[in-house]
Amino acid sequence: MKRLLRRTVLIAGTLVLMQAGSVMLVRPGRVSEQASAIPSPSSSPTMMPVTPSASPRPAPEARKTHAAASIGGPAQPSATCGRTGTRVVRFRIEVDRGLPTTPSRFTKDVLSILCDRRSWIAGGRVRFRYDPKASLLIGLRTKENKDRICYPFTGYGSCQKPGQVVINADRWFGGSAFLPLTVSDYRRLVINHEVGHALGQRHRGCSAEGAPAPAMMQQSLGLTTDGRTCRANPWPLSYELRTVR
Ligand SMILES: [Zn+2]
Questions:
Q1: pLDDT tens by residue, 168-216
Q2: Are 71 and 106 in contact (CB under 8 A)?
Q3: Which residues contact 115 (CB under 8 A, 6 or more apart)?
Q4: What is the DSSP pairing of strand 136-141 with strand 159-161?
Q5: What topology is assigned to 67-241 in CATH?
Q6: How far is the CA of 97 from the centre of ligand 1 (A)?
Q7: Which helix (H) or strand (E) covers residue 124, if one does?
Q8: Among 31, 32, 97, 144, which is least packed, fewest CB within 10 Å?
Q9: How far is the CA of 47 from the centre of ligand 1 (A)?
Q10: How far is the CA of 188 from the centre of ligand 1 (A)?
């Protein structure tokens, strides 16, 4: 009975912490048992089979480690892209040390995707701006740091948490082995998908056989849902754009 009670308390504690987006504060030994059964509404695993680690690393170290090991982006804000839309989404960037790019290169890459006329600005409801003081952080992370920050969603893909988009550098540089997309198109997909979450978008399935997949579909997990198979596609579709507020 005591054991049952303790388990219940731990489950409740886990839920509260996960919903608050504070997964890193949870002691891994306690959360691991429930993690795979209780998906967090605020942490969105993408492009990956969810395989919570059997012996997770100590998550609390992550805050120090990634803060100390990453570099912020350029000091100057960018221009705002998108011609219409009252909602201006500002983002800053961080790049983990040791990765084969620079913060300014990564900032340019992200801007080139979000400011493409096929991205979320196409709906005319949102605009984007790089700003080193922005609260939304887009981070290019080593696999190890990505797993710490995204815990319990460790593994293949990237993730989004409140205030933070976490891009797995392995996939950024190597693309997805599961999708017929170039590395450039994979980068477009992962940025559109994870920033889509930051805009409030949720996962979608394939709407019709042979149709382009929604950007918010977890495409690396498979292009088929409910018996319909879509084509890989990195850009948000018109019906996705219409739901941006
Ligand atoms: Zn997702």
A1: 999 999 999 999 999 999 999 999 999 999 999 999 999 999 999 999 9
A2: no
A3: 81, 82, 121, 128
A4: unpaired
A5: Collagenase (Catalytic Domain) (3.40.390)
A6: 25
A7: none
A8: 97
A9: 7
A10: 14
Pair 190, 46: CB distance under 8 Å: yes
Ligand 1 center from residue 193 Cα (angstroms) = 6
* Ligand 1 center from residue 219 Cα (angstroms): 9
Chain centroid to CA 126: 19
What's the gap in Å between 168 CA and the centre of ligand 1?
A: 13
Please identify which residue in the block is written with the tokens 């504060």: 25
Q: What does the alpha-carbon distance between residue 134 and residue 221 come to, in Å, rounded to a whole number?
A: 31
CA distance 212 to 105: 29
Residue ranges with CB less than 5 Å from ion ligand 1: 44, 46
C-alpha radius of gyration, the chain, whole number: 18
Give the Cα separation of 18 and 43 in Å (integer): 8
Report the length, in residues, of the chain. Answer: 245
Q: Which amino acid is at 191?
A: I
Give the rounded distance of the alpha carbon of 115 from its chain centre.
18
Instruction: For residue 172, give both structure tokens.
Output: 């950024």
What's the gap in Å between 108 CA and the centre of ligand 1?
Answer: 23
Distance 57 CA to ligand 1 centre (A): 23
Instruction: Give the global pTM.
Output: 0.74
CA of 216 to the centre of ligand 1 (A): 6
- In the numeric block, which tokens belong to residue 99? 């990765």
End-to-end CA distance of the chain: 48
State pLDDT tens for residues 130-172. Answer: 999 999 999 999 999 999 999 998 888 899 999 999 999 999 9
For residue 152, whether the previous peptide bond is cis, meaning omega lies within 30 degrees of 0, is yes
